[in-house]
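ok here's TLC domain containing 3B, seq below lol
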Amino acid sequence: MLTPMVAGGVVFPGLFLLSKNTLQRLPQLRWEEADAVIVSARLVSSVQAVMASTAGYIVSTSCKHIIDDQHWLSSAYTQFAVPYFIYDIYAMFLCHWHKHQVKGHGGDEGGARAPGSTWAVARGYLHKEFLMVLHHAVMVLVCFPLSVVWRQGKGDFFLGCLLMAEVSTPFVCLGKILIQYKQQHTLLHKVNGALMLISFLCCRVLLFPYLYWAYGRHAGLPLLAVPLAIPAHVNLGAALLLAPQLYWFFLICRGACRLFRPRGSPPPSPCQTQD
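and the structure came out like this:
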């Protein structure tokens, strides 16, 4: 177990530092630190999402028996991804910190920051990103132990499907980068917003009815009978995982309506949601 976690602890922060330093030091780029940090954090999130989705696809398509079949990637990638969620909490804080400084709330340029300003930024970060931080904490403190210990090698198919929920993340990250460079009105932003909406709906919202349907087909049960046939704590866990997805999907839909509604003034982006 230790080897994949150590590898994840090296790969994700290492990729972030490599990307940030490259964007800052390449003569053709010479980006400011704030821009380099924010784009690098989005890049790492996208890379992790592609890796997770690929691993999930391999696992889910390899498990013909949805309960008993196993694939080594299910446990290996779960362990590998744990450091990512810890790293990403810090990376999101760095992004928030730099946005705070750019907006002029970090004290005079070149001067010492006001006492307690770091704590003020940290409080603002936790207030703004509370749901995302909570999501990451739950993934590490609850979902990881459950997937490694409680499952006892059962249900790799379901874990693979859950990993594929990350399909929408690269579209979210690209949307935020386009916003950062004020490209909200471009065709790329609109196409990306549509792809994000579709991928989020299919891979994060409709995923849960699909998992219930897959179990029902395996057990010979109609879809509506599945919740009554499985343990209550499984239904509770699914509901807790689905709830933030529904909230984020609502935000995406609200933003999409504003983006595609003809207006004279620049519309807000549909991408101001999860990392």
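fwiw Residues 105-116, 267-275 have pLDDT under 50 and may be disordered. kinda neat tbh
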